[in-house]
Amino acid sequence: MSTRPLTGADTQQLADLATELEQSAVIGLDTEFLRERTYRAQLCLVQLATDRDCYLVDPLGNTQLSVLQPALASLQSVKILHAARQDLEVLFPAFGSVGNVFDTQVAAGLAGMPAQVGYADLVKRLLGIELDKSHTRTDWSRRPLSAAQLMYAAEDVRHLAPLRQLLLEQLDKLGRVSWLDEELLGLVAGDSLFVDPDRAWERLKGIAELDEDRQRLARLLAAWRERRASDRDRPRSWILDDTGLRALVAQVPRTAVALAQLPELAPGFIEHSGSEILALIDSAQLPAALPPLPGRTRPDADATARLKKLSGVVSEVAAALGLGSEILATRRDLEQVAGGNAGAAPLRGWRRAAIGDALLAALRG
Question: How far is CA 202 from CA 174, 228, 297, in A?
Answer without folding.
Answer: 36, 17, 22
